[in-house]
Amino acid sequence: MTKLATLGISLAISLAAAPAFADGDAAKGEKVFKKCKACHTIEQDGKNKIGPNLFGIVGKKSASIEDYKYSTAMQEANLTWDDATLSEYLKKPKALVKGTKMSFAGLKKESDRENLIAYLKTFQ
After folding, report:
1. In what helix (H) or strand (E) does residue 114 lie, and over which residues does it extend?
2. What Å distances lie between residue 52 and 21, 36, 80, 98, 116, CA to CA?
3. What is the largest CA-CA distance in the chain?
4. SS3 of residue 83 by DSSP
5. How far apart are CA 121 and CA 87, in angstroms?
6. The dihedral formed by the CA atoms of 31, 45, 61 and 29, expressed in degrees to the nearest 10
7. Helix pair 110-121, 26-33: axis angle to 10 deg
8. For FRET with 5, which of 16, 66, 75, 84 sits at 20 to 30 Å CA-CA?
């Protein structure tokens, strides 16, 4: 019983400490993605542009898109593009990965980031 109670308390603490991510609105995220289209494609088997193709990016390791030349900083970052990491990166890319070649300043609004991540998740 004690182990079960400890597990329950640990779970409650970790859930309380984790950032809350709303599901976001993929339709609104599609509009936000217009800011990304100059540098990224998102279609399956889409070509890389200035930035890599983002099809299936959610859940992938950083610098894992074949045939794309990443910065050394991104190659060494060893990130997994989950909701939290994507949100932090999209907020201010150069703050998370110093030396990234992504020149985008970032998305200040949390709702824009949540919606964009919801949109990205529709391409898996």
Report:
1. helix 110-121
2. 25, 11, 15, 18, 16
3. 57
4. helix
5. 13
6. 10
7. 100
8. 84
For the record, the structure tokens of 112 come out as: 């824009």
**First and final CA of the chain: distance in angstroms?**
41
The pTM of the full predicted model, rounded to 2 decimals, is 0.81
Question: Does the CA dihedral 28-31-35-36 come out positive or negative?
Answer: positive
Sign of the CA dihedral 5, 14, 63, 86? positive
The answer to whether 38 and 54 are in contact (CB under 8 A) is: no
Q: pLDDT of 75-111, one tens digit each? A: 999 999 999 999 999 999 999 999 999 999 999 999 9
- Name the amino acid, one letter, at 103: S
Give me 7's structure tokens. Answer: 């597990």
